[in-house]
Amino acid sequence: MPDLLDFGGAPLMEFASRRLRGKIHAAATAVRYHDGAVLHAHGDDKPGLSIVRSGAVRFGLVDADGTYIATSLLGMGHCFGEATLFAGRKRTHDAVAIGETVIEQIDKARFDRLFDQEPDLARALLNATTRRLYSALDFMDDLRRLPLPVRTAKLVASMANSAKQDGSVACNQADLAFTLGVSRVSVGKTLGDLQNAGILKLGYGKIDIPNRARLHEWIAERSA
Amino acid sequence: MPDLLDFGGAPLMEFASRRLRGKIHAAATAVRYHDGAVLHAHGDDKPGLSIVRSGAVRFGLVDADGTYIATSLLGMGHCFGEATLFAGRKRTHDAVAIGETVIEQIDKARFDRLFDQEPDLARALLNATTRRLYSALDFMDDLRRLPLPVRTAKLVASMANSAKQDGSVACNQADLAFTLGVSRVSVGKTLGDLQNAGILKLGYGKIDIPNRARLHEWIAERSA
DNA sequence: ATAAGAATGCTAAGAATTTAGCATTTTGAG
DNA sequence: CTCAAAATGCTAAATTCTTAGCATTCTTAT
Fold this sequence. Notes:
2 copies of one chain form a homodimer.
Chain A: H1 18-27, E1 29-33, E2 38-40, E3 48-62, E4 68-74, E5 79-80, H2 82-86, E6 94-107, H3 108-117, H4 119-145, H5 148-162, E7 168-170, H6 173-180, H7 184-196, E8 201-202, E9 206-208, H8 212-222
Antiparallel strand pairs in A: 1-6, 2-6, 3-4, 3-5, 3-6, 7-9, 8-9
Chain A binds a DNA duplex through residues 147-148, 172-174, 182-186, 188-189, 192, 202-205.
């Protein structure tokens, strides 16, 4: 259960008023999943909006050669499934519960009704998806612009923001490697370099950040 | 003025009814820009929604070392600036007109009024941004999953869809290289290989696709 | 306390990519 | 028609990244 990025954006529920949250709860059916349970598979035709009430969901795809590739991890308050409602897509990824997870599910019919009744829902959804879109664009920009050490540092810094424990990030190098889209060896080497530069300290399944300001400074110096 | 990707999604105006389009036009102020004119710069604080009525807009950023890096190119019917309205961001990129371009501009106050009056606007915006978000996610997925030749072929194929001229795509290798986030040398080599494989033909500032089905087949065989 | 599993550290060969040139071809403007 | 600019083609060295493997360290469940 690493502190891996909730893909940038803030969660939908943060943009909903107390009243709207109540309406959403009322329209939804809560479903409980155990760790590792499959919520849906790539290609399923289940239009509807889902909201993570507790726990987390990991999205990914199984490759032709059988390797699983994770895409993102959404935690409490985040929503998914917008694409089935607004882009007419089937489920784009496999979704798996991480830890004990409760999902609030709103099927298409109910969603459409709620959407028409509650104009604030549209605004909340636009807040959430716009933020996600722009963080994705930023991420892609970095991908082309910045060398691996800087991207790595940025990722660690962004994880530090949402981390439970201050000054420390819970995540193993393999997951980091995947998120950055490079091999574990490269990440290991890069993290080693960053440690030598004194801006972070490697642990077992975690990374300590002795001085957050210093890390941000180091990044700023190298990213335009 | 290459056929470079309109970042995946379909344009906003395609999701608007004739009536809504009328309302949008009525609320907007049209501004004309000549080729190369700057619409806004990165960091400008100009909240509002903009819609491309004719021409196109190229978005990008100037690096610390002065190199300009393009991000996307939006053509007719596409909108931008949602992030200034929904994510509370300043303008995230420099925007430059490509060719004679007319932009319909709706400032924040007018937008909010229109947004409240016209529930369909929310739906249209969600359609557009959701599609863009998911194409961006797909693109990132490909970036990590697929080797360069396949990504290149996919990009060419997607450009072919929106190209004016059938069976041919107008784009130079340098722009392709940037969009793929690799060097011109790599693209040149890769395109050469694809040409040898017989699935496309290189020209000067363009790429011909003798057999679209064959190209898609080639891609499908290699992408999961 | 210990064994099993997880995670990290390390290595070396090979593949892919970049950088920095420069030569050649094509296009379009005058 | 000619010339300059734009685009492509090519090269070679240097760098970065990957793959594949195995040893070591750390954690946790029994």
